Amino acid sequence: MKRPTMRAVEPEPRLTGGRSRGIPGLIALMTVTVMVATTAGCSAPASSSEARVADPTPAPAPDPARTADLDAAQAMAAAFADHDVGAAAQYLAPDAELWDGWIRHWERDSAWSVEVAMEPCVEMTPTSWATEFTCPFAMHLMGSREVGAGPFLGNALTVRVADGKVLSAHRKMPSDTNGLAEHLDSVYAWLEANHPADVAFLGTDELAVAEDRWPGWLELWTQYLAEYIAATGES
């Protein structure tokens, strides 16, 4: 990108004496000399027109490619926060690489009442083929807000983008250090005490649940979390 140049300062106006001949010209010159001598030590205030300030350097025009990449990263982060698979699909490159089972995870997050508060995505050091963004977020889930736990901090969605399309997206959640693991333990302890027959099924990894049982898995989680909040939530 060509760096914009500052407009040159216009030169100050120069005063030029008129050309005179004979006595009138000599008298005029003597008059000027006397006036200068009698006003020595006094200086007239500078005219504002004599010191013109150059216009500020204009801001560089935004790079359309970088703007498109940032927009794609922000859109991916918004879709992640809303568990909106359809919205995310609009920005995915044909061979995009997301974490395994991301669609089921987003469906699970909806059943778990996951609330994601995204911060603006920040551009990291770009490579020759893509730009990486990190999108920090805080979260609540499984009634944590209602029972006085969370929010769980220190999470981030990392999105790699090229030509306005998402090439990859991965999330990082330090559950062992931000209080999330403790909250999950409390939810499972309540399930074991109140719905012991379903604990094994609900504890099954999302990707291991058979397709025909997946809707029931989601429904049970939604139902039991509502009961958990009603039984343990803060009044």
From TrEMBL:
Residues 1-20, 45-66 are annotated as: Disordered. It comes from Microbacterium alkaliflavum. This is SnoaL-like domain-containing protein. The lineage of its organism: Bacteria, Bacillati, Actinomycetota, Actinomycetes, Micrococcales.
